[in-house]
Design a protein that fits this description.
The complex is a heterodimer of chains A (607) and B (368).
Chain A lengths: L1 H39 L1 H12 E6 L6 E2 L5 E13 L7 H12 L3 H12 L8 E7 L1 H9 L7 E10 L7 H4 L2 E3 L2 H5 L7 E3 L2 H5 L1 H5 L3 E7 L5 E8 L7 E2 L4 H11 L4 E7 L5 E7 L13 H9 L21 H10 L3 H4 L1 E4 L2 E4 L2 E4 L7 E4 H7 L2 H11 L1 H10 L23 H6 L12 H8 L9 H13 L2 E3 L11 E4 L4 H16 L6 H4 L7 E7 L6 H4 L4 H7 L3 E8 L6 E7 L5 H19 L1 H5 L1
Parallel strand pairs in A: 2-10
Antiparallel strand pairs in A: 1-8, 2-3, 3-4, 3-5, 6-7, 8-9, 11-12, 11-21, 13-16, 14-15, 17-18, 19-20, 20-21
Helix pairs in contact in A: 3-4, 10-24, 12-15, 12-16, 14-20, 15-18
Chain B lengths: L1 H6 L2 H22 L5 H21 L3 H25 L1 E3 L2 E6 L4 E2 L1 H17 L8 H18 L4 H17 L4 H13 L1 H7 L2 H11 L9 H14 L10 H4 L11 H34 L3 H25 L17 H22 L13
Antiparallel strand pairs in B: 1-2, 2-3
Classes of the chains: A alpha+beta (607), B mainly alpha (368).
């Protein structure tokens, strides 16, 4: 019995010993696991906890407004709500997108596009903009449900609005959302970037620099505290030299016609108006343009996206006769001081070069030939000068050269030379001849042929004639000092003759712009131009209606000049595509511009 | 009266007070940004629990020995009622509405089982035959009823406590080996009976990253909290994981990660040392006890505490699947705290009775 008791006691002791040993084993196992986490892998978990709680949130700058010279707003920012989401935080993108699509009334295509953006986001940890320009009523139901939609954010922000939209579309330009390329360059995916016009040229001034704040967030991504804030650098306001009222007057005068108007301050090159028609509604770019609309603009034969004032070069036609005339005076060509007889054509070898006036102008001097725009006189003058002299003179006056306006891309225009290899470089030259013919010089002398210039170049030419020969850099911004690129060394009395002839165009009985500009509020001087259009090919014919065909085969109309005559303030270039005759089609537009200017500066009218 | 104080295990008591202090500090850190009322409630539970503790210190074990069978019997009856009329909470039928209060019979069953097993082994060993079959049935019937509720945690407690007591009672090794083999063999059967969320927990344990926002979220966030605490911790109330609510159930089952994040390895070591002290003292009381009923009771209590600690810390640190067992004396929760303090009261009573010269007890005789 006693042995039995001892045996039981002994067995109990052994079992207790096992327990004594098991307890430190179990607790040691736990301690080891904790040490593994807290000691060996501490760095890793520390990093994870920091990533958990810290969020670097960009604070976007407000883009600078654009105003015209009188302070009228051309580009402003309106408060609106935008919805963005962080792809990384979203577990079931399709479910979330379905919910958002229902609440924000997305079309299926829109949803598909947004879905693509989210799934292909290069930085899934950064917010991706999915909808913008929303009013409070539209986002209110969404904000109420945000806690069910982790990763979705609604933020108040500003969006760009262009009060004059189509009127200023080419000059101001538009914005669009940062693309992959921009993001690589350091932009944030929710930032808007200027793509064309002033918005693009002065992007760095207008944009500002985003700030950021380091936020502590809780497990639902909600902000708990702002730890550090670097405020954004706001975009600066930009005041343009543009006078939107003059722009409007030009646009009204041009009506539905296609064309361009440039109004330039003759003293400092400030761009008072720069219009290209047709325009397009820049406000439609902000939400991410529907691709159909974009395609429609791209395919529109009227090319609304093209800035005809700077990006398109046209034959300057008779406005170029000024250059030929000045070349004649500069080089002391016999005809420039003398006269010739215009029977309505010029017999040249076996060809007849026609004057636009079939019945002929009769006896023509430089003055009367400019006033009446006689072709025969300039055929002869050109022939006496030779292509090199004409070409050099054109370059002197800034043709065939980029104006350097801060509105890229800009067309250079073409000034042909007598050197044959240049011809090969001219596009659309159907016959790439190796030899330059005299006849071609004569055609060029009246502004036809391969010669082309942009309306901006022609406006600058007018400004240079008005200001005594200063070729100016066109200034988009207000208050810029004159930047003289080049001064043309022309004798004062020679320039005077040209100016008097330009005045004669407006005032004299046979002046080509007398009817349209003699009653303008300011005394004007100028030159008309009517550019012959190369007849369309048979192939192109078939696609167009009869009336359209007639229009298409109409000549381009030009007017360039300046006002007031005695005390020049503004230079004007008006180009009307297929407008018809320069004096009657382009002249009234110039008159409207002058009247608009005069209404703004009544003092000037007295002079 | 004084004799009772002489018999108190002052070291156990001191350890308990340290745990109480630490627990209240950690709980404050866990709830200070949210419902601070929970902290005051927990303080009240400590008061109630200590009252129960002291009451049981004065309650002769003999009374418990007499009461254990009726208690076990009635709890088993209630447990059998649960599948029939119980209330469903969060996918499990555990609660019984008794009109005056909602109770979880399974919670009481843990303690009823160790009382009845202690009583069974008070006068016999577990060497074979009826000596083993009866305790096995006593444990297996309620375990089966609880596992179908389903309540894996409590089932585990019953099995673990019964196994520990049977080992202490001298279960032959070969039978233990056999039982272990049978247990391993029954794992697929267990898997079959497991609730979907429990299976998910097991799978997630194997690879928490497979479902970082779903079932793996809790474990990932708690391991981040623990790991980011480092050696010294982020400082009291400075834990970012709990302050920013990345931690789930941070005042109940996951409170350990709050302690580990803010107190670091130092605090974890302190906590584990206090637990080691607690369990050791209970085991020593069991070893020194003058009657076998007391020994067995203490071993049952020690087993439950050990399991709670291991499963809870193992769970939050990613060692075991998520099984909802509280961290003794630290987790928020009134009934768990009061019952555990009551259990300690019983242990203390065993200590007291081992020191006192109590007439009905024959010292030195393990088999009464």
């Amino acid at each position: 019995m006693h042995n039995k008791q001892l045996e039981i006691r002994h067995r109990f002791d052994v079992r207790m010993l096992i327990f004594y040993a098991a307890v430190p084993l179990l607790l040691g196992l736990l301690l080891f696991q904790i040490m593994r986490l807290q000691w060996f892998d501490h760095e890793k978990y520390m990093l994870q906890s920091e990533q958990n709680r810290l969020n670097l949130v960009p604070v976007l700058p407000v883009r600078g407004e654009i105003i015209d010279r009188h302070g009228k707003k051309l580009a402003i920012n309106r408060i609106a709500y935008r919805v963005s989401l962080i792809p990384e935080r979203i577990e079931h993108p399709d479910e979330i997108l379905d919910v958002l699509a229902g609440m924000l009334a997305w079309s299926p295509e829109q949803q598909a596009r947004i879905r693509k953006r989210i799934l292909h986001a290069r930085r899934p940890d950064r917010p991706v903009l999915v909808d913008d320009k929303l009013q409070w009523q539209e986002v209110a139901p969404l904000t109420a449900r945000l806690h069910h939609l982790p990763g979705v954010n609604v933020t108040a922000g500003s969006f760009r609005q262009y009060p004059y939209a189509e009127l200023t579309s080419h000059l101001i330009g538009y914005l669009s959302l940062a693309r992959e390329r921009d993001i690589d360059a350091g932009y944030l995916p929710s930032e808007f970037i200027g793509r064309t016009g002033v918005e693009r040229s002065f992007e760095s001034t207008l944009h500002g620099r985003p700030g950021h704040q380091r936020e502590e967030v809780d497990s639902r991504g909600r902000r708990v505290a702002v730890l550090k804030r670097t405020p954004p650098i706001m975009g600066r306001q930009l005041q343009l030299a543009l006078d939107v009222d003059v722009q409007q007057a030009a646009s009204d005068a041009l009506g539905k016609r296609t064309g361009a108007v440039v109004v330039m301050d003759v003293h400092n090159g400030a761009i008072i108006a720069m219009l290209s028609k047709p325009g397009y509604d820049t406000n439609r770019f902000i939400t991410g343009l529907e691709s159909e609309q974009w395609q429609a603009w791209l395919n529109n034969p009227e090319k609304p996206l093209l800035n005809r004032a700077t990006q398109a070069a046209y034959p300057p036609a008779s406005t170029f006769k000024l250059v030929t005339g000045m070349a004649g005076l500069q080089h002391g060509a016999r005809l420039a001081r003398g006269s010739t007889f215009c029977p309505g054509y010029l017999q040249f070898a076996d060809r007849k070069l026609r004057c636009w006036k079939r019945t002929g102008h009769g006896k023509m001097t430089l003055h009367s030939a400019l006033v009446q725009s006689c072709d025969v006189y300039f055929y002869e003058l050109g022939d006496q000068l030779g292509m090199a002299a004409i070409s050099d003179e054109a370059h002197e006056w800034g043709l065939g050269e980029k104006t350097g306006i801060d509105l890229p891309p800009e067309a250079r225009g073409i000034i042909p030379t007598h050197r044959p290899y240049m011809m090969a470089a001219i596009k659309n030259s159907q016959t790439k001849r190796k030899k330059w013919f005299r006849g071609e010089t004569m055609i060029t002398a009246i502004g036809q042929g391969a010669l082309t210039a942009t309306p901006l170049q022609i406006a600058r030419l007018a400004a240079a004639i008005a200001n005594g020969g200063d070729i100016l850099k066109p200034q988009i911004l207000a208050g810029q000092p004159a930047e003289i690129i080049h001064h043309v060394n022309i004798r004062r009395q020679d320039l005077r003759r040209i100016q008097q002839a330009m005045r004669g165009v407006v005032t004299e009985a046979h002046g080509t712009a007398r009817r349209t500009l003699s009653h303008a509020a300011w005394s004007a001087a100028g030159k008309t131009g009517t550019a012959q259009v190369i007849k369309m090919s048979q192939h192109d014919h078939k696609k167009l209606s009869r009336t359209e065909l007639l229009r298409r085969n109409r000549d381009h109309a030009w007017f360039m000049g300046y006002a007031p005559y005695k005390n020049p303030q503004i230079a004007i270039a008006v180009f009307v595509e297929h407008g018809g005759h320069g004096g009657s089609a382009a002249g009234p537009v110039a008159a409207a511009v002058i009247n608009a200017m005069a209404a703004k500066q009544p003092v000037m009218a007295a002079r | 009266m004084l004799r009772i104080f002489r018999g108190l295990d002052w070291i156990l008591l001191a350890g308990l007070l340290c745990l109480a202090t630490l627990g209240m500090l950690v709980l404050y850190a866990a709830v200070h940004q949210g419902d601070t009322g929970l902290w005051y409630k927990q303080a009240t539970y400590w008061g109630v629990g200590m009252a129960v503790f002291l009451t049981l210190c004065f309650t002769p074990l003999r009374l418990l020995g007499l009461a254990c069978w009726p208690i076990y019997g009635s709890v088993l009856l209630l447990l059998m009622l649960v599948p029939l009329i119980g209330d469903v909470h969060m996918g499990a039928r555990r609660w019984l509405d008794l009109g005056v209060a909602n109770i979880q019979p399974s919670e009481i069953m843990k303690w009823a089982l160790i009382f009845v097993l202690a009583n069974w082994f008070a006068s016999r060993e577990a060497r074979g035959g009826i000596e083993i079959i009866i305790p096995l049935l006593l444990a297996a019937v309620p375990a089966a009823l609880i596992v179908i509720q389903p309540d894996l945690g409590t089932t585990l407690v019953l099995i673990f406590a019964a196994a520990a007591m049977m080992i202490a009672a001298g279960l032959p090794w070969r039978l233990l080996a056999l039982a272990s083999a049978a247990a391993v063999a029954s794992l697929p059967v267990l898997w079959h009976f497991m609730h979907q969320y429990q299976r998910q927990r097991v799978l997630t344990l194997l690879d928490p990253q497979s479902d970082p926002l779903g079932a793996g979220y809790h474990v990932i966030q708690s391991t981040i909290a623990i790991g980011s605490g480092g050696l010294l911790g982020k400082g009291f109330l400075q834990g970012t994981q709990d302050r920013l609510h990345f931690l789930p159930e941070q005042h109940t089952d996951f409170i350990f990660s709050v302690l580990a994040e803010e107190g670091g390895l130092i605090a974890v070591t302190l906590l584990l040392a206090l637990y080691a002290l607690l369990i050791y003292r209970i085991l020593m009381i069991a070893h020194r006890a003058h009657n076998r009923f007391g020994s067995m009771l203490c071993i049952g209590v020690a087993a439950i505490f050990t399991l709670y600690i291991t499963v809870n810390i193992g769970m939050v640190s990613g060692l075991f699947p998520v099984v909802g067992l509280p961290l003794p004396f630290i987790s928020y929760g009134g009934s768990a705290l009061v019952t555990m303090l009551g259990a300690l009261g019983l242990v203390m009573r065993v200590a007291i009775e081992s020191r006192e010269n109590i007439p009905w007890q024959r010292p030195g005789s393990p088999l009464a």
